[in-house]
Amino acid sequence: MSLxxxxxxxxxxxxxxxxxxxxxxxxTQDIRFIEMLNKYKLKGTFNLNSGLLGQPGVITIGRKPVxxxxxxxxxxxxxxxxxEVASHGLYHATxxxxxxxxxxxxxxxxxxxxxxxxxxxxxxYAYAFGAYDNTVLQALRICGITYARTIKPTYAFxxxxxxxxxxxxxxxxxxxxxxxxxxxxxxxSPFPMLKLFYVWGHCYEFDQNDNWDVMEHFLKKIAxxxxxxxxxxxxxxxxxxxxxxxxxSVDGSVVYNPTCTAVWLGAIGSDCVTEVGPGCVTELxxxxxx
Length: 290
Ligand SMILES: [Zn+2]
Fold this sequence. Notes:
Layout: E1 3-4, E2 8-10, E3 17-24, H1 29-39, E4 44-48, E5 58-59, E6 66-67, H2 76-79, E7 84-87, H3 100-118, E8 124-126, H4 134-142, E9 147-149, E10 170-171, H5 177-186, E11 195-201, H6 204-208, H7 212-222, E12 228-230, H8 233-244, E13 247-248, E14 254-256, E15 263-266, E16 274-276, E17 281-283, E18 288-289
Parallel strand pairs: 3-4, 3-11, 3-12, 4-7, 8-9, 10-11
Antiparallel strand pairs: 1-18, 2-15, 5-6, 13-14, 14-17, 15-16
Helix pairs in contact: 3-4
The protein binds zinc ion.
Residues 24-25, 88, 92, 128 line the site of zinc ion.
């Protein structure tokens, strides 16, 4: 027998599954993708290079050459309305093994310009080429970045311990994706109790691989579930960070929420859900017996 305290994180409203998307480079193909996300009421995070906005281009790697035109700075706010804009570096430079000043500028100048365009604080980041080292991690902290996405797949639905090394579940072209969708939708296991399905990619890849319809099929399949929280990267990170600031009594009977975010809690082996309001001290149910 074991006693399970009601201190486990649940997603808002007591949900146990969340789904998020992260797309890089700020290309004009994002517009078509966002139309699809809006159609299915899904949320995405889009990682832009502020120093490259408005630049035309063609990308020749992949199955065929496709346009790699960056969205214009004056259109950023309207194109990404309802979704999150995050940084992807000023010029998409390789900042590993570079001096700290260049590294800081690549991160901070991008953040500052995107904030000017969007009008809200931008604390998300996606590593250019997925690459980082200790200098980059330190620079991100100094620049106030609260999460950063890699390109290393976990093939799992777990949360990162360190949001500055946030490994996604998989890329949208990964051959494991169909299997992972089924696993996620049918997963009722208590371990992990909280599940996050995180897919990343570049929207120009749908042109390269002619698979817009495959992606739409996937989005349609995962959309519309009452028990899944559809959120941006930023919403997820801020929510989990609020949970990590909760202060529990030693016996687990009460909890204090010092943040301005309501947090939902549960226990392994129990369907009971407790909402802990911002600034509140809340009594928790007796431990569940397993
Ligand atoms: Zn990129």
